[in-house]
Amino acid sequence: MGRKPRFVSHVGMRIDEAAQGQARCSLELQDFHLNTSGVVHGGVLFTLADTAMGAALFSTLEPDELCATIEIKIGYFKPVIEGALVCTAELVNKGKSIASLEASVFQGEVLVSKSSGTFTIYRRKTDAGLAGPPVTG
Questions:
Q1: What is the pLDDT of residue 4?
Q2: Which of 5, 70, 96, 104 could disulfide-link 118, Cβ–Cβ 3.0 to 4.6 Å?
């Protein structure tokens, strides 16, 4: 994937591997990952799943292709309070412009969340026709 995305760094997540339509991400939980009830915020699990699925798909793209999330469905099975999380993702189907992926988040051997996602595949615009100026900082 080249350089590590800033948001991934901000959250404290690591993309451990991404190749041939599969990816593995991990996260050591910290206090700021918890919601007001003292349980890991659902958005943390969602971020792991989204990032892992994106990394899995990105590993299959051509150099001039990018991908973006269209939608994700996520199921939360067990509450998480502390420790480490690992998310594995795999490409289920890839067409010319749409891909389907699945991700599972584990704490140790326990499945805590399962997701399925749909992503778009598109070519990088060469005329800087992207919305807004680039983010800096």
A1: 65
A2: 70
